[in-house]
Amino acid sequence: MTRTGQISPCHHPRWWALLVIGLCLGYAIVTVAVLPVWSLVPIAGAWLGLGWLLRWGEPPNPRPPVRVWPWSLVPLCLWGVYVYLAESFGIVEIGAIFFHLQAGIAEHGGSGRLVAAVLYTLTMLALLAAFTWLARRDHRWRLADRLLALVLVASNPLFYSMGQRSAAIVTDDGAWLDRRYVAPTVEQAPAEPPNLLLLYLESIERTYADRERFGDAYAFLDALGRRGHVFEGVRQLENTGWTMAGMIASQCGTPLMPAGLLHDNQFEPLGRVVPGIRCLGDVLDEQGYRLSFLGGASTEFAGKGIFYEDHGVDTVMGRAELEPRLEDPEYVNDWGLFDDSLYDFTVEEIRRLEAEDAGPWGVINLSITGHAPNGYPAQACLKRQGEFDGEDILYSVECSAWLAFDLIDRLEHEGLLENTLVVIASDHLTMRVSAWEQLIAGERDNTFMLLGEGIEAGARTQREAASIDLFPTILEAMGFSIEDHRAGLGASLLSAEPTLVEQHGLADLSARMHEETALQQRLWEGLVPDGREQENGQAAPRQVLEAPGNGAEEAAPAMQ
Description:
By secondary structure, the chain is α/β, with parallel strands linked by helices. The protein contains 20 helices and 12 strands. It folds into 2 domains: about 150 residues, no CATH class; about 325 residues, Alkaline Phosphatase, subunit A, CATH 3.40.720.
């Protein structure tokens, strides 16, 4: 028998309930606030101490238990979703969630997260059970439940972003960004257009170049940068922070604003991706380029293949096309091919295009080595760098940098890069990885460098820019003259034209993006159901080109 008053968890379920809530609360705070893992213990301990002091679950003046279902259960579930996303990706973008749901997530390589999702689900069930038990046993929890539900909803960043968007619909004309959009227009093409090799290095941001924080992980990209022109200060705008968004931003000059309700069939994946604008592939296709895309992952994921096929790319190859060509069919990862295999196929594709001798070519390549959370280092790196512990992202960063360096060397050695512009860029800043605390300790920027004939070796440009500025910069680096040195929302970093980030800053641009509806309609023109365009007969918004320093806060159009 247990003595009266002795605390025994087996005989006092309230301590189990309080422990579950305390651990979940501690984990949520540690995850969202990016605190050391050990911080969970004092947070949970403080919660248990507060529960003991206030006698939660065993009030001094108890009332009969009431079988109720707390209002806070749903808000708690939504907070669980947010914490899961924050733990998985670091920065949670609502646009990414909406886009992937509509574009399709078939054949994704995130199977490793399924175990985490199951654990999160079980933990949430335990949390909901604990909260419900306390609400039924302690009338003070029942009285506070509705207020707590409101606080949970109001404080959830998921609701905050959606609330901003909803408020913007009634407070703004929704065309600020669209008025600054410049359709890409080639005014003059070079006499001998160069080939283009565009290498996207998954998540390999330029922040890794800081040797004090990350050692030599970025050293091979630094070595490549000394051969060409390096751009510093390429920041990440909202709606450009995942792979498809990063590629569309850098090739189309605009953030990827999801189709949302503009999608004419909400229950099927998108049949087209940003059909309303012209992108790099469209421009080069019009100039007679033969274009290819190669990536080790499935082209069905997130509408990747649809985007490239829809925008001028002749040959689109992903896992389904390349895996049967592997010498060892077992040499694949969750997403698809390792990058040493992918780069072998890239060399073969460039050889094929060169052998055709039918005009300029362009090859776009997307790597996988640096993919969060741990990366997928290739066998070639394991032989060079030694054993991989399965967690250290810096190992994968070094691997990705070396593979890119080796690919460029191989192509140069074979003479396959004559009259070729090589562009090396990260698709976006990395998501949550083992070096996350070091990464977010200061300003972060994306990798962007140019190599090739006519590119000054060792040149460095420091400007406040974004990935939307890569589109016009690449065109001008290839020798194309474009209208006002602009394309999409971007400005060429090879010109004196000011970028939107220089003029308005990231915070203002993010706020404007929450208010924008006209640019969203432009991106998805053709998917808008009949009769929704130009509602109420409103005329299309005029274009605004801003002069440096004018701020151009033009008067809003008169209401009609």
